Batch of 2 targets.
Target 1
Amino acid sequence: MTLTFTPLPKIPLIHTGDDLTDIILNSLQAAKVTLEDGDILVLAQKIVSKAEGRLVNLGSVTPSKEAIELATRSEKDPRLVELILQESRSVLRVRQGTIIVEHRLGFVCANAGIDHSNVQPGETKGVSKNFASDAEDWVLLLPENPDRSALAIRRKIKIATGNRIGVMIIDSHGRAWRLGTIGMAIGLSGLPGLVDKRGWQDLFGYRLKITIVAAADELAAAASLVMGEAAEGTPAVHIRGFPYPLREGSLKELIRPTAQDLFR
Amino acid sequence: MTLTFTPLPKIPLIHTGDDLTDIILNSLQAAKVTLEDGDILVLAQKIVSKAEGRLVNLGSVTPSKEAIELATRSEKDPRLVELILQESRSVLRVRQGTIIVEHRLGFVCANAGIDHSNVQPGETKGVSKNFASDAEDWVLLLPENPDRSALAIRRKIKIATGNRIGVMIIDSHGRAWRLGTIGMAIGLSGLPGLVDKRGWQDLFGYRLKITIVAAADELAAAASLVMGEAAEGTPAVHIRGFPYPLREGSLKELIRPTAQDLFR
């Protein structure tokens, strides 16, 4: 069966409080896609974060002593570093322009996934602003609980359409050892993070050895590719043909426990 | 535009010396897929390695002193460890059952990508055997030069069909920090490894910051998902709808130089 990734058209600029489910259902209609059980919807972190009001103006942030010190080492804005620290469990590596952290959500990423691009003042409607600021000062944090965000959208879609689908929220992450970013799951609901094929047999009846597949991340990667990340502005993707059964799932499945991690 | 991944049916068991291009063209016909310029074909490492005779019987391997020592630490067969060392530039980490190496091709992976599954004696037709052995003793090395393998197939397809396509060879790799394997490019020809979007502007005219996308790996991930890795046996995938122009490309683009790698 063919696995398809269809970017969804006509997603408007998202503001705090927008109902992403309504917006996606309209977009599916515009794309002439009728949802089916087993489909998966993938949303870029940015639109989920914006809908949830995760914008912060740097003018409202007072950097701690630790943030100021780290800002010097990384040559970053101390206020941004303060937010990075607030969003992280620990700092793994520091170099110019980049602080690699273990995010409070468990995954390792650069700068706690805090994004400076694709934020403009018009989008901050509804965000309280009791400080002096200008457009460039807005940054966007990751959703507070992306699994929960995915679940909420999945439930609303179930109510609206009756379909049992999976919903995933993704972001672009760098990697150890390899260049370039790829899309990875940061939250999911209704699809497996991992597919465990241990005990499955190969063509000759031997048992497979290393066979826990990061299925959600494999979907996230290609979904990210069709989203693009610049002015194309297609932050939602419809997937059909996922070759495994849907089930409950969670980001936690994909996080390697620190004790098993040889590369920290 | 929808990005599609179609597993190719009716790929037979591959033996040393088989012409993969012929086999894939037959499979495309069986799948009723007519190639178009811009399409990409993805092959599992296993079938390329088998066609190239990269099978080794452990009975033919004499482990070095270093291999014997490492075999004790990793609880692996010293002869297999000898092959892992021969295929690697350096050993990064060792734990029970797993030796993480920098492969001679440049990427970091477990056990130098040497695979024990999906190899059976019937497949070793044409491989010289001047030693006592049994079926279980066969292992499969990665292709000697996967970029070159991909190029050769791409050229033959150009001659046979006239189409300008990309060809990629992939394998499943584990990752730092995250659980589960995902498909990654280990060789490519005729498509970009990375797509560099630095200088592109976001929706509001800001320049994007971190925007070098590992496009080949994003394709490899989803291709791996539709291949499956067990008895399904669909080691080739047709991709249509890649959203960037094809160009010459190489695995080297995707390898992070050691000096820039914070996690070794």
Target 2
Amino acid sequence: MMQILDLRNKIGDSSLKTMGLGRPINDDRDLEKTVIKILNKVKDRGDKAIKSFTKLLDEVTIKKLQVSPQEIQEADGLVSEELKQAIKLAASNIRKFHEAQVLKSTPIQMTTGVECWSKSVAINRVGLYIPAGSAPLFSSLLMLGIPAVIAGCEQIVLCTPPDKNGKVHPAILFTASLIGLTSIYKCGGAQAIAGMAYGTESIPWVHKIFGPGNRFVTMAKQLVQKDGISIDMPAGPTELLVYADKDANPVYVAADLLSQAEHGADSQVVLVSYSESVLRNVKLELDKQLETLPRKEIAEKSLPNSKAVLVLDDEEAMKLINAYAPEHLILNCANADALAEKVINAGSVFLGNYSPESAGDYATGTNHVLPTNGYAKSYSGVSVDSFVKKISYQKLTEEGLKNIGPAIELMAAAEGLEGHKRAVTYRINK
Amino acid sequence: MMQILDLRNKIGDSSLKTMGLGRPINDDRDLEKTVIKILNKVKDRGDKAIKSFTKLLDEVTIKKLQVSPQEIQEADGLVSEELKQAIKLAASNIRKFHEAQVLKSTPIQMTTGVECWSKSVAINRVGLYIPAGSAPLFSSLLMLGIPAVIAGCEQIVLCTPPDKNGKVHPAILFTASLIGLTSIYKCGGAQAIAGMAYGTESIPWVHKIFGPGNRFVTMAKQLVQKDGISIDMPAGPTELLVYADKDANPVYVAADLLSQAEHGADSQVVLVSYSESVLRNVKLELDKQLETLPRKEIAEKSLPNSKAVLVLDDEEAMKLINAYAPEHLILNCANADALAEKVINAGSVFLGNYSPESAGDYATGTNHVLPTNGYAKSYSGVSVDSFVKKISYQKLTEEGLKNIGPAIELMAAAEGLEGHKRAVTYRINK
């Protein structure tokens, strides 16, 4: 079911599409219209609109959108002790990795009397969206909530859809509580994004919205940008590329590919190797493992879009990888360290035989909110940086302005901006 | 001509618009249609389309889009020695400030056998747009080109419109040459953005496009994002807010306000003070200085949109500043250091009486490509960070995976993702 492409000697300047590795493109025009309607209704009617969309789309009547402290407390009793410990271990690693991202900036003396510095300042109000459709993604909440708290965001709003009983999954509430979030709303889909973008009677508006979601959520995030709300990154279906050398274990490789394929019917899975026997063996192993996979139906839909690519050698493989720019890249090969140095475009890289993608999805400490759809060419994954902006500062003394003033005057005049020049001249020619 | 608003005791939760400080909103629907046409023509017809738009819009026939080495050499003779020295001084400060932004990352040992790190990797192909309509903005080229070179971008493409003789302004060519750029194209407007987004016979395509421009350029940058090209930041008219205390020199304050007002008829200028006499004196001084300003006509159009705001005290001023989120903020007051600590939303901050905005525009070393239109709430200005993405890495040994594997298995199972769990199980239960 996974198509084998022989691309030996063909990886050069031809496009991914020509090589059979193009990503699927959705025609989103109808979706856009629907989502615009949802956004406008929430903008106009606030909570009322959100509740009526929740009834219509999530098929549940919600009286109070905000999760109560009592519900959070109840959830604590519904999560097993061992799952709590697992979440705490993951949280601790994620915290450790992300705390190292906090930047301390020291002023730089540019010349006598001219001092410049920059400072990371938390984005004041941020919104996190956590889907709960096919699974309660508390791991994504760790990935977004922890850096938001480390950055020091003052208002952190969490929206996540309620289940059929009007409840939020206890593992999500436990995780939120562990991180220290209390502003939690039972609200999903495009209506949740609208709530955080424009604010309602219950839901606080925010400056920036984070988090994965279905096509409605993704479209809503795209659209609210027009109203000045920023978002973490453009989103597409999740992806994994595995580069396997001749000694890669086909059982592990197949398991990694399936862990990605089970995400959704639109997941992208690519296997690359110079060894035909590895490609064949992984394919056999895939079929075998698929039989007993609980989410077999989903994985089966995704695999036909996926490709097994035969290349000549490491060099062709790295060319292909950098052209594809995978969200997740597993280098399952003996020389993984050396190849990792040659990665230019990827979201997160997993080295060697014992680094499955799911390790990074949950617990190594790195972030799993990563650029998809080729965006790894210009975007980073979520980090503490995503929750701050850097403000630059400069302080000049009279002497400092005298030192660099003449250069400013000359440049301003050459750009035809006499007003810029005068702002200096008045000060240094008193 | 500058309207005085008395907002004492009125700065709270009411919107900027209600307070009379809303930013102008352009209706861009017609513009969007025009720009889409330009983008599509360039996508389909490449250089031919670019040349015909250049003929139509810049009124000049260009045979060869790329600037020749000879033209670069000629330009060198056309720039005065003193301007060259000024540009070199600015370049040296900008280089010093931006080199400090380069991040070294060291691997973190998360637990025995689990090592994680992240690495800044240059965006491979970037495009810089430098306008030349009302002025040859070589200073913006310094601000974009220097961090691109420091980041290590492999392909740096520069597009800038030709003058009526089909030439690029010598100061721009000198600056490009100083920075080390050679891939320079005579091409402006939306057609230049299209050229860099899609590539033509002459112009290389890029992953990310930077730089200021008119409404066509801004719209084109917005639109090419749909095709997977990223951009530096959303752009709006440039802005300055000056907070002046009772001892601020009205001559300096007025000069600063005019230096911003002369940029364009849509520039935003806001003066804030608790001192009515300072507001009055700055207003008088504005009128006086305006008379002799070469770009009087432009500044005169911008000033009526501008506001002088009376507040009660520092506290109200800081509330207003953080709500407005100005691109440039001058704290012209004795306690500038203390107030700077309270700035949450601003692009670049200038402290004290001797720190005019034009110092940062040209030569302090900080970047002058900054978030406008309130985007300082969630965006940073351009920095080396804008030219890299951070890739995360993880490397686990068998022991490492055994250490965190059980937590991963539990979490994956709780999220209903059995395939994720198995990728671990197969490895640790051999």
